[in-house]
């Protein structure tokens, strides 16, 4: 699956990474409607290349993916741009990686199944979060 | 014994199993049934809610919850047998249903069910075995009543039998196991080729030809001349965004003989292994090599004109325009893009208006050949330049096209035809992909700001989506009678009664409701955008005025937000492309559908349970009946429990048995004043009975015939003295079982009223009366219509009324029980006055408008 057209103007830039295409399609639909500029990737390697190319305000990433996993995405994104807020998505079974993710600088950790309101709220909170919580302000 | 006496005796028959058992114990066991039933319903509701489009979930979630559900159902069956041990037969029922669920989980459910099914008999339970195209046609037949060529579906079970019977299973298994591996392409291609050729020469499984012959005979019997069949693919995935358009083979104009149809069927089935279908599938489902195919066999229409319609212009989804392309004869040439056609653009108004016509030169067209297949014939010079559709046909077709888009809630790609007599048939309707334009996406958030917002961030999403249309306020069931196509239903409370107009509604909004109600389930089935729990919406909208409901962001706008509708049409997300979503939908089709609706009918038996929901319903109903019967056993109750007289300002003569928290502590041992009652549902009923003007004291003029009738009906010895003495209320803090006789009729009200909506039920029974049968029947109609107006599920048989309601918040329960109390008082001796049907209408109207004095005046 290719990246969604990213030439749309908007206040905030969002990157969504999940190897299940539906997550990107679903979230892009919701956040584009809210006026954000949304890019989606199902291939984590391509997504990281995208992060190198342009800054994002928020990255939403699945934790378990083939190749590069969510924790790796988190570390790399934080290294490239510390002010980017990263929201992690994890499977229904859940596990104790939440603590590690928070230590590595994740802004939030959401477990499937989740409602669109939950992720919307997480993203809105991340926009409103104080500068120190989301790293250096751009 | 007189038949009526028998009926009354049965009505008040003793509950032999629990006779003499402490009502506290019965209630406690009942609570345990409720608890596990509730747990099961919660799991089902939770699973169902995930299909609303508002959630993202994974397969682990499905597996864990299904396991939990199976265990909980076992608990329910166990709990019911503890309450009443006569329900052992439910164990094998549970085993049967659970085996099916396991088959669905293992993706083996497409090997079950009938081999051949007439299109009109296809229900959502069959969606997994008939394929997407057939399923859509069945929906069009059931909900839209449009003309579809008659026919039947050959299911995926037949496909699997074909594979097994011809020894092809090892090849198929190997093929599926290699599917996801990318380094075995040579072996995979080799297998594909072998399967594709082998399938075209397979032998029919035993018994199939006989079944085929029977269905062909039935089909031919509805035609009045020579006929032939169209045999088309209907793969399970064909209802997805990815339409599989043109990927599989079709055989047209096939003679209606078993051998010819089977040969055509084999060719179509083999086409799932065709090179192009496999390439397309690999692109769609790189991980999922499990394949099967359903096939549709329909009568071939001898077409005058045919073509394709797009319900939305993919180039300009915001334009609210549809496109119709047609040509003379059969439409195959248009579909394949081989023949030029006339193109018409119509507005999406109702009725549609023609915006532009582009007429092509049509030199030739396809018609049914004499033997089989189609043949190209040259057209007369006159026909070549003539538009293939006239204005009336375009408007008729345009209206059907609008109906289809409104029903499927997304743009559709429709194949249609007019036969030689000018009758319009829909041949197929599948999703149309409309790409979202860059401008639309960029400007959307900004352009929405110009619209007035009526509601923002209120309510709960029962089904996602966006709908626009005129408001149609529904305050009572009769308001549904004139529900316009494409309107937005705005009501006070969610109700499963809306089902009859749901397929025509653009959206539904209610002031009270829950995303786990029956209505919400139906909305999800029909994909009707729906917001519930939106307080005050009835005051904000006006009948007939347009609004736009955004049941994604929980907003309601005044007017039609065209930008939002265009965005919706072009991006409506089809979650069904994910394997998890399809699995969950398939599971829920086998879990949530309710077939045991009517406890009065003979079909309300364990062996008729087809889903877990049926089983839960049966368990609940059986458990409630055990409670209901508890109150009938008057002598045992009075012998074993302390009964106290209830002091009321009306002569109702009720004895109260408190089994826990129904009466305030320190109440006198012999009498209970009304003020000391702490039973929530009982107080609500009594409040209604005590409502000013309800307890009319006027003596009814009973006629001689009525008097004779009543004397014949209820001789006291026939009932062995039961129910001639006392009216008994068994109560607890949240429960009442009230068995009583006023005048010559018998009532049972069994109600539970708690903080949890799902725990709440009202069971109401009414039988008999002092007057002759016609008057009693009139009173039955009166009671039934009034209860229906208050959303009760009502059944009547002769002079018996049974009504059920439930799943309501406590406040609503109290309101409805109060109404029930008023109704009991109001109708106490009313049958005497019901001389005519007009009188019935008069008293119904009086009751519904709160004009209770008419009885005593």
Q: How many helices of chain B?
A: 28
* Biggest chain contact: A-B, 28 and 24 residues
Bin the helical content of chain B: 25-40%
Total strands of chain B: the figure is 31
Strand proportion of chain B: 15-25%
Order of helices and strands of chain A: EHEHEHEHEEH
- Cα radius of gyration of chain A in angstroms: 13 Å
Instruction: Give the strand order, joined by hyphens, for the main sheet of chain B.
Output: 25-23-24-26-27-28-29-31-30
Radius of gyration of chain B: 31 Å
In quaternary terms, these chains amount to heterodimer
Mean pLDDT of chain A: 81
Helix content of chain A: 25-40%
Mean of all residue-level pLDDT scores of chain B: 85
| SS element count, helices of chain A | 5
Low-confidence stretches of chain A: 1-9, 134-138
Brief overview, please?
The complex is a heterodimer of chains A (138) and B (857). With 138 residues, chain A is α/β, with parallel strands linked by helices. Chain A has helices at 21-33, 44-53, 70-80, 97-103, 116-128, and strands spanning 13-17, 37-41, 58-62, 85-90, 108-111, 114-115.
């Amino acid at each position: 699956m290719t990246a969604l057209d990213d030439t749309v103007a908007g206040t905030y830039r969002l990157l969504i990474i999940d190897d299940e295409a539906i997550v990107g399609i679903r979230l892009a639909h919701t956040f584009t409607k809210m006026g954000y500029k949304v890019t989606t990737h199902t291939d984590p390697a391509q997504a990281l290349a995208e992060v190198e190319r342009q800054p994002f305000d928020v990255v939403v990433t699945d934790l378990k993916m083939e190749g590069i996993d969510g924790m790796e995405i988190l570390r790399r994104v934080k290294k490239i741009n510390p002010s980017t807020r990263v929201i992690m998505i994890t499977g229904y079974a859940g596990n104790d990686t939440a603590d590690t993710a928070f230590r590595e600088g994740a802004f939030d950790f959401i477990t499937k199944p989740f409602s669109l309101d939950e992720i919307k709220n997480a993203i809105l909170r991340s926009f409103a979060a104080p500068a120190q919580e989301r790293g250096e302000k751009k | 014994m007189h038949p009526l006496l028998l009926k009354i005796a049965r009505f008040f028959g003793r509950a032999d199993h629990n006779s003499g058992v402490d009502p506290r114990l019965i209630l406690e066991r009942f609570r345990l049934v409720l608890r596990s039933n509730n747990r099961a319903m919660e799991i089902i509701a939770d699973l169902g809610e995930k299909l609303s489009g508002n959630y993202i979930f994974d397969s682990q979630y499905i597996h864990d919850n299904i396991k939990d559900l199976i265990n909980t159902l076992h608990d329910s069956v166990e709990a019911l047998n503890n309450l009443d041990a006569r329900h052992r037969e439910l164990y094998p029922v549970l085993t049967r249903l659970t085996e099916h669920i396991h088959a669905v989980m293992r993706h083996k459910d497409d090997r079950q069910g009938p081999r051949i099914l007439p299109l009109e008999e296809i229900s959502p339970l069959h969606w997994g075995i008939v394929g997407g195209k057939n399923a859509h046609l069945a929906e069009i037949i059931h909900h839209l009543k449009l003309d579809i060529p008659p026919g039947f579906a050959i299911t995926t079970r037949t496909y699997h039998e074909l594979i097994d019977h011809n020894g092809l299973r090892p090849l198929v298994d190997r093929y599926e196991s290699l599917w996801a591996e990318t380094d075995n392409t040579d072996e995979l291609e080799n297998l594909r080729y072998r399967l594709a050729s082998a399938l075209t020469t397979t032998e029919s499984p035993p018994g199939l030809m006989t079944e085929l012959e029977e269905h062909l005979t039935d089909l031919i019997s509805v035609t009045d001349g020579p006929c032939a069949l169209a045999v088309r693919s209907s793969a399970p995935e064909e209802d997805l965004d990815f339409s599989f358009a043109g990927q599989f083979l079709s055989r047209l104009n096939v003679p209606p003989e078993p051998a010819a149809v089977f040969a055509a069927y084999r060719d179509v089935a083999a086409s799932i292994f065709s090179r192009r279908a496999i390439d397309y599938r690999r692109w769609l489902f790189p991980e999922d090599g499990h394949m099967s195919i359903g096939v549709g066999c329909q009568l071939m229409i001898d077409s005058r004109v045919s073509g394709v319609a797009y319900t939305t212009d993919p180039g300009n989804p915001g334009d609210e325009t549809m496109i119709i392309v047609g040509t003379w004869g059969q439409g195959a040439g248009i579909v394949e893009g081989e023949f030029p056609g006339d193109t018409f653009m119509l507005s999406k108004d109702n009725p549609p208006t023609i915006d532009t016509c582009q007429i092509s030169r049509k030199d030739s067209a396809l018609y049914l050949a004499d033997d089989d297949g189609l043949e190209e014939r040259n057209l007369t010079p006159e026909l070549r330049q003539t538009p293939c559709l006239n204005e009336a046909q375009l408007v008729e077709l345009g209206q059907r096209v609008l109906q289809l888009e409104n029903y499927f809630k997304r743009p559709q790609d429709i194949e249609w035809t007019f036969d030689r007599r000018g009758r319009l048939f829909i041949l197929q309707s599948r999703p149309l992909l409309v790409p979202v334009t860059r401008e639309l996406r960029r400007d959307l958030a900004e352009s929405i700001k110009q619209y007035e917002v009526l509601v923002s961030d209120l309510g709960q999403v029962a089904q996602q989506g966006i709908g626009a249309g005129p408001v149609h306020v529904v305050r009572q069931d009769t308001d549904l009678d004139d529900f316009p196509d494409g309107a937005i239903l705005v009501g006070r409370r969610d109700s499963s009664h809306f089902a009859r107009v749901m397929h025509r509604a653009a959206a539904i909004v209610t002031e009270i409701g829950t995303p786990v109600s029956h209505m919400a389930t139906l909305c999800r089935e029909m994909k009707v955008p729906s917001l519930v729990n939106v307080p005050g919406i009835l005051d904000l909208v006006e009948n007939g005025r347009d609004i736009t409901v955004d049941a994604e962001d929980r907003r309601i706008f005044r007017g039609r937000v065209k930008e939002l509708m265009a965005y919706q049409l072009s991006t409506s997300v089809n979650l069904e492309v994910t394997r998890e979503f399809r699995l969950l939908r398939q599971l829920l089709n086998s879990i949530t559908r309710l077939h045991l609706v009517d406890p009065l009918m003979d079909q309300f038996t364990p062996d008729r349970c087809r889903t877990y929901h049926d089983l839960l319903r049966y368990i609940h109903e059986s458990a409630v009946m055990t409670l209901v019967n508890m109150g009938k056993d008057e002598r045992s109750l009075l012998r074993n429990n302390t009964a106290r007289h209830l002091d009321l300002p009306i002569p109702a003569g009720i004895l109260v048995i408190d089994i826990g928290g129904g009466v305030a502590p320190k109440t006198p041992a012999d009498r209970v004043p009304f003020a000391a009652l702490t039973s929530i549902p009982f107080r609500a009923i009594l409040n209604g009975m005590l409502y000013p003007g309800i307890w009319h004291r006027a003596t009814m003029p009973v006629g001689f015939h009525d008097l004779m009738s009543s004397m014949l009906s209820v001789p006291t010895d026939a009932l062995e003295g039961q129910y001639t003495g006392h009216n008994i209320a068994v109560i607890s803090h949240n429960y009442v079982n009230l068995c009583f006789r006023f005048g010559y009729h018998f009532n049972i009200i069994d109600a539970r009223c708690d903080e949890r909506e799902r725990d709440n039920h009202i069971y109401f029974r009414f039988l008999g009366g002092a007057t002759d049968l016609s008057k009693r029947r009139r009173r039955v109609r009166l009671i039934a219509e009034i209860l229906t107006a208050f959303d009760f599920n009502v059944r009547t048989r002769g002079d018996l009324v049974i009504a059920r309601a439930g799943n309501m918040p406590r406040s609503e329960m109290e309101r409805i029980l109060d109404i029930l109390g008023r109704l009991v008082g109001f109708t106490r001796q009313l049958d005497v006055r019901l001389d005519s049907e007009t009188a019935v209408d008069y008293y119904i109207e009086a009751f519904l408008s709160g004009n209770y004095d008419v009885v005593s005046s």
